[in-house]
Specification:
The structure is a homodimer of 340-residue chains. In chain A, 44% of the residues lie in helices and 15% in strands. With 340 residues, the first copy, chain A, is α/β, with parallel strands linked by helices. Chain A has a six-stranded parallel beta sheet with strand order 2-1-3-4-5-11, sandwiched between helices. A six-stranded mixed beta sheet of chain A has the order 7-6-8-9-10-12, sandwiched between helices. Chain A binds a DNA duplex (16 and 16 nucleotides) through helix 2 and helix 4.
Chain lengths: 340, 340
DNA sequence: CTGAAAGCGCTTACAG
DNA sequence: CTGAAAGCGCTTACAG
């Protein structure tokens, strides 16, 4: 039996009051006679009335929700981001709405439009996105924080990982372990994180008078499978590299399984390091050395920036924050076993 | 400079047409003169106009969005669910809105209300939720699919993992390996998955004339840390169990790290198995045996059920689907090394 | 303490 | 091909 959704009107009618009164009851606002209140609540319950958020939002011009736009979601990285963001949103009395898996440009645009009407502000994590696309698809003056995006200008708050610094430090560390032939498994093409990490890697080599070499730079796309494939390619190189720098941990995990399959000893024959330090990294065997980023901190800080922007009605000086990284050194690069 | 959000009215005025025409242009509907269309588009672009989804939704009584309500999000499990759901939603031209980290009952209720107005249907994954709570917090006749929830009755579609069967089969397998003292690390209390898995474990013992023993049933909450703690407790038991059945992989990962820390050989001294078969399980060392569930299949199927419900205006016979499990047998229980 | 009415931003039969 | 007007479900000054 299909019944129409019950609205405030019907409740009002059945209770013999105006919609204004019902609204007051449901928002716990203004003075309402105790008896009236009880009657309205009873009727509402009997009718299974629940206020329609869309009507409400349109009226008050506020949604109390924050949107988080993500690229392809997989692995632990994104659940950590979501977790940090969700917690912080709730602390600030916002609900978090997540939308994911947008790889193609038109998907992103569609998602932007869908989200933009439903939230008071937006955290956007979308690798290749230009300012123009954002401006044409978002309402003027919607508070926005760009997470790991490459967008210049002063229109938006932004938050980035220190990819360059982290990658450079890690590659330096490998050199200090005595490695001279260090292969890198690159991240997704045209992805900002990927590019910066590669740049950091190259910089470290140069600083140590090692010429970067195209043969050592293997394509990858941040997935475990691509790491697996890349490792196989690397193992076939002659002379064989003695260390592998995977541009993220998922690819390092894939590489790890390839190396184990072939029976290569890590770190003795080949050292292996990753980037992100996802929670599972320390539980791998050998425990994976990685560039540590506070992943859920990413979510937390982005939401804090956004909440600030919303409170200021987006009328504030935009902030460009860079999150520092550190090295989590474990067995896979030859450092002593720890569970740091 | 704070400017008000630009609306359809302003575009209409600046373009010298009615709002109806602007609407037609933006929805690519009805006949609009090519010149008029171009003019409207130009003005809209110049003004950075983007249609307000809330106004639209209210008018057409449709949101083209589906909501996914999750409990605490962490680890790979949830990203996999989200991924499956997102993909399937997009295939059906719906946008997926995810809301997570609802543990307390009032948080869940708030989330239900917030979501319910913004979507055309809802997939709800919330371990302990009763039919009454759902009914009072959701609009009558909103299509809902319950994922891994324990709600009786015929009002909602539901989707569950065969937790009992999977756990029973895995415990049987351990017995076949010769284990007589099998400890179990339990999942979160009052969680349906947790209870069913425990029930399956006990059933297997009984079928093999092994008396279930309270000392072997260690508390846990599905997190890595709780698995770590539980393993320490188990190692102190005398006589010591020869196998550990963790109620999910995250806890197995925690247990793994505790065992390695103490220097216990897996599987020789203690066999270890998990549940879920998250992607990283096969990459652990030793590779983790686990009860395999198609996690992203969970998301996929739930969305398919929901889309069907929406199309039928919720006026269909409700379906109760149970997803089967299988055993992914690897090194950690003493089975040969494979990367299946 | 309560209600009539305007308004939030859109869509859509209807009439022209 | 185009517009005036009603309506979607709510909130909120304003008046009483």
């Amino acid at each position: 039996m299909l019944r129409k959704r019950v609205t405030i009107k019907e409740v009002a009618k059945k209770a013999g009051v105006s919609t204004a009164t019902v609204s007051r009851v449901f928002n716990n606002i203004g003075p309402v006679d105790a008896g009236t209140r009880r009657r309205v609540q009873q009727i509402a319950k009997r009718l299974h009335y629940t206020p329609n958020a869309v009507g409400r939002s349109l009226s008050i011009k506020r949604t109390d929700a924050i949107g988080l736009l993500l690229p392809d979601i997989f692995g632990e990285f994104f659940s950590e981001v979501i977790r940090g963001a969700d917690q912080t949103a709730q602390q600030n009395r916002y609900h978090l709405l997540v939308s994911g898996s947008h790889t193609h440009r038109d998907e992103v645009e569609a998602a932007l439009r869908v989200m933009s009407g439903r939230v008071d502000g937006l955290v956007i994590m979308s690798p290749h996105l230009d300012a123009q696309t954002l401006k044409t698809n978002l309402p003027l003056n919607l508070p926005v924080v760009l997470l790991n995006c490459f967008v210049d200008g002063v229109s938006f708050d932004s938050l980035n990982i220190d990819n360059f610094g982290g990658a450079c430090a890690m590659a330096q560390h490998l050199v200090q372990h005595g490695h001279q032939r260090i292969a890198v498994i690159k991240g997704t093409e045209k992805n900002l994180d990927a590019e910066e990490r590669l740049r950091g890697y190259r910089q470290a080599l140069r600083e140590n008078r090692i010429a970067p070499c195209a043969a050592w730079e293997i394509a990858g796309n941040f997935s475990e499978t691509s790491g697996y494939e890349a490792a196989k390619t690397i193992l076939a190189l002659r002379p064989r590299p003695t260390a592998i720098f995977a541009s993220n941990d998922s690819m390092a995990i894939g590489a790890l399984s390839a190396l184990r399959e072939i029976g290569v000893d890590i770190p003795r024959e080949i050292a292996l390091v990753g980037f992100d330090d996802i929670p599972v990294a320390r539980f791998l065997s050998p425990a994976l050395s990685s560039v540590r980023v506070s992943i859920n901190g990413l979510g937390t800080i982005a939401i804090k920036q956004l909440v600030h922007a919303i409170r200021e009605k987006n009328n504030h000086t935009k902030q460009h924050v860079i999150i520092p990284t550190s090295l989590a050194l474990r067995e896979s690069c030859g450092c002593p076993k720890t569970l740091q």
